[in-house]
Write a sequence for this structure.
């Protein structure tokens, strides 16, 4: 069975995917926030499903409520694919009451406001499939209970609630690996932290011990060798290695100069400097966020203040500038962003 799993971008959303990853081992995972991201992600998954006509497919959506129009469109698209011979099981598992109208209309839309989505997905694996053996359920079920306690705010369940608060903060602050350029790696980082966190569940004051340890767990994941360093420096080194593996796909050009373009990387001063120093054939570095704000960095070869003023109405310093693309449209597709920026650079 081929799994396609869309989930939310918070602790509950990633908790759902941790469960399906543990059970199915492999699959195509996506994370989306509400609004445009959901619409674009649904479109992307439907396009990718068309490549697997011979396989049985589970299309799972969790911790996201769809509007009645989104549900209507999705139901129509799935039925069309089924009529064409695709073997698709569509299932939405959620707990947000705002999806009640959709849940009342479509059989595949399961709504239960008394459980968080992670717990609904966990129970679903037992109800529809074989469930987990004790080696997995012994740590996964207690972790599910802590997510449930904090996500639907069961503050009377003090132990689980306090532990849940720590892992909610931990997951929300995973910024060391970019979640757009490296979505799969970012997700694996979160899964790693959640599985490591589970080891503290049975300890006395486990939530306090975990809170003290989060910094070191992150460093352990990001270390490329035995040498210790600050978290920022380890993150920058890890990022440079990751960027180096895909830099050809992220390359843009300006006249005779070569640059690297990232999307929603944020706080680029340290990683941009590290990348440019490690890759002498690159002359500049640009990062654009979802609102079209852009940061430009260089290492003495290109005047990025001039570049920023020409393409983004900005300016600043020779090696560090900023600007804003007024006609930029938010996207979840990096290639769309790359084509947009390259067109701007070509027109200078």
């Amino acid at each position: 069975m081929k799994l396609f799993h869309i989930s939310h971008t918070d602790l509950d959303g990633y908790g759902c995917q941790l469960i399906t990853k543990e059970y199915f081992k492999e699959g195509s995972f996506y994370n989306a926030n509400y609004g445009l991201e959901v619409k674009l992600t649904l479109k992307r998954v439907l396009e990718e499903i068309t490549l697997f006509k011979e396989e049985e497919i589970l299309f799972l959506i969790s911790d996201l409520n769809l509007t009645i129009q989104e549900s209507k469109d999705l139901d129509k698209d799935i039925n069309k694919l089924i009529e064409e011979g695709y073997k698709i099981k569509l299932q939405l598992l959620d707990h947000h009451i705002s999806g009640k109208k959709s849940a009342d209309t479509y059989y595949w839309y399961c709504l239960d406001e008394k459980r968080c989505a992670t717990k609904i997905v966990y129970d679903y694996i037992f109800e529809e499939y074989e469930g987990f053996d004790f080696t997995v359920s012994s740590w996964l079920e207690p972790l599910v209970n802590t997510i449930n306690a904090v996500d639907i705010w069961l503050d009377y369940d003090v132990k689980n609630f306090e532990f849940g608060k720590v892992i909610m903060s931990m997951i929300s602050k995973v910024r060391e690996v970019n979640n757009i350029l490296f979505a799969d790696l970012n997700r694996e980082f979160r899964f790693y932290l959640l599985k490591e966190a589970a080891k503290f569940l049975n300890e006395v004051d486990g939530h306090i011990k975990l809170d003290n340890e989060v910094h070191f767990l992150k460093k352990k994941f990001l270390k490329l060798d035995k040498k210790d360093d600050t978290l920022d420096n380890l993150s920058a080194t890890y990022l440079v290695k990751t960027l180096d593996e895909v830099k050809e796909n992220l390359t843009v050009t300006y006249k005779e100069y070569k640059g690297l373009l990232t999307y929603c990387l944020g706080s680029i001063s340290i990683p941009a400097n590290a990348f440019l120093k490690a890759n002498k054939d690159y002359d500049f570095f640009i990062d654009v966020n979802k609102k079209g704000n852009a940061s430009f960095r260089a290492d003495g070869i290109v005047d990025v203040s001039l570049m920023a003023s020409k393409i983004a109405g900005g300016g600043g310093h020779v090696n560090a500038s900023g600007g804003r693309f007024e006609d930029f449209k938010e996207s979840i597709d990096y290639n769309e962003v790359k084509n947009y920026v390259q067109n701007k650079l070509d027109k200078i």
